[in-house]
Amino acid sequence: MNQNTTDQFFKSTVLGHPSGLFVLFFTEMWERFSFYGMRSLLILFLTASFTDGGWEWTRENASALFGSYVGLVYLSTMLGGYFADKVIGFRWAVVVGATLMTLGHASMAVETEFSIYLGLVLLVFGNGFFKPNMTSIVSEMYKDRPEKKDGAYTLFYMGVNAGAFFGILLCGYLGEKVGWTYGFGLAGIFMFFGMLQFWLSQDIFGDIGLKPNKESKAKAEALDTDKRNPFTNIQLVAIAFSSILALLWLINDPASKISGGKINVFAFLGQDGNAIAIVSALVVFIILLIYRFTQYSKITKEKLIAVTFFAFLTIFFWAIFEQSPNSLTIFASDYTDRVLTGNWSVVFLVINSLITILPLVIITWVLILLFKQTFKLYAIANIILSFSFIIIWAIAIWMLTKDYYTAGYLNLSDSTLQALKIDKVTISLTEVPATWFSTLNSLFIISLAPLFSKWWESKYNPSANLKYGIGMGLLGLGMACVAFGASGIEAGAKTASVSMIWLILVYLFHTMAELCISPVGLSYVSKLVPARMIAFMFGVWYLAVAIGMKGAGMFGENIDKIANEHGLSYFFWMLTIISVVVALFSIAMTPVIKKLMHGVR
């Protein structure tokens, strides 16, 4: 075998991959656990009544804050990526991000007005430092082993989905059934464990991700032989103007609504100040983007236009897909019959037990394999990781015990109930948590991803436009399911009892849509964009994602207005129509975009 710079990582392997990959696997798993765990609770907490421990906000205000939060999370990745590349390195960026997120979750667990807002700010910056740099370390570890990179990312994203699943399942359960503080706090505890485990195991990555020095910068510049097209001073001013205006808008939009207009930095622009500000920012940025495209050769310019086209479609995808923690969670909480009795109660309890225990068994097995390979060198890190799993197992078993007891299938003495902190019940029933439905996305991804991967590798692999068209069509089909399910809800109704089957179908179709669009988009950025422009165009891509996230919040803001006037079903039919129109537009543009891509598939 030819020796190369990555051979050192393959001397200690787990499942045929470097042990270091699984250090990243568990670090990323706990980060996603904390991110999705908190996110699943945010809208429910903000809209819950005072008696239920919430803030009793309107859905409009809650969605406005949620949209700005997730939008800022994606915009902050550009800042975190820059600091990691130029100043502090990948490792310190991960540690700084994890620390900020730990403090953010701890702050949210306090549940005061100041602490919640402070927590969200810390989480935005923490995500920005953490999110882009974990994948950078994976990429560096496999840079001389491209044939193993696909398998590495598959394992890595299994960690992502495992974290998302358990975060929503357990944080959501504790938040809804026990108290919001417990849900927010649990998210922070496991982010802290993830950070400690990463920091104590960092030597396993060799020189990857260290703080840049003169020698490493000179080496990177020597390898980069691409022609530069630097930004002029005027272009930098335009970027600064549009960026500052967009950031102010993201913050001011929810602030002005929540405060009833008392806080409004764009008040001097009149009643439509917010709209004027964001439109101005977008116009300036689009003009700059178009001008930059004109500075390149015909082929490069056309490829960049193709990437921009897919980024435009991505805005609509995320704006509708991200209704999951927003309007779909509200639908699950207030309009879905989540109480099960008889055989259906048994079916749910068995299924919930299986989807909780089996993944834990598999991941614990992976943990044991890592333990065997790395304990001698990284004993404390392994002990911390093992301790975190003991806690997860304890919470999972406690949750299932509580569910079987409240459903009437398990008898517990008063002393046992007191020891387990479980309230005594007199009426046996099973109530599915509203956040439980969001776990289906991760479960369906783990189940369906291999099938879609095989499809993309076969001779039937569709074109980029067709993938987007299929994805947006599936997104529309999912929304059509919930729209049909909500058809019997009268206009203005605040509660209803719609069957759970509609939400299950939504998450099935939306997961298939995600598998068609989400991994494909970033792949085309790397395939179509010249190396010298990759950072800028990834910035454009994440800007599109951020706009989509904020768009999800803006859709959610209008759910009550539309539902009160036309009925809840009308709201979901609107999202269905938008999805289908974008799907048809993508397919119709196939000949044009195919030409612009110049043979790239």
TrEMBL record:
Biological process (GO), any one = oligopeptide transport
Q: Tell me where the transmembrane regions lie.
A: 62-83, 90-108, 114-130, 151-175, 181-200, 234-252, 272-291, 303-321, 341-370, 377-400, 434-456, 468-489, 501-522, 534-555, 570-593
Sorted keywords for this record are:
Cell membrane, Membrane, Peptide transport, Protein transport, Transmembrane, Transmembrane helix, Transport
Q: Does the keyword Cytoplasm apply?
A: no
UniProt keyword annotation of Membrane present: yes
* The organism's place on the tree of life at top rank: Bacteria
Q: What is its main location?
A: membrane
Q: Mention any one GO cellular component term assigned to this protein in its UniProt record.
A: plasma membrane
Q: List the membrane topology term(s).
A: Multi-pass membrane protein
Instruction: State the Gene Ontology terms under molecular function.
Output: peptide transmembrane transporter activity
Cited InterPro entries:
Dipep/tripep_permease, MFS_trans_sf, MFS_Transporters, POT_fam, PTR2_symporter_CS
Q: Where in the cell is it found?
A: Cell membrane; Membrane
Q: What NCBIfam families does the database record attribute to this sequence?
A: yjdL_sub1_fam
Query: Which protein family is named in the record?
Result: Belongs to the major facilitator superfamily. Proton-dependent oligopeptide transporter (POT/PTR) (TC 2.A.17) family.
Name used for this protein in its record: Proton-dependent oligopeptide transporter, POT family
| Species assigned in the record | Flavobacterium segetis
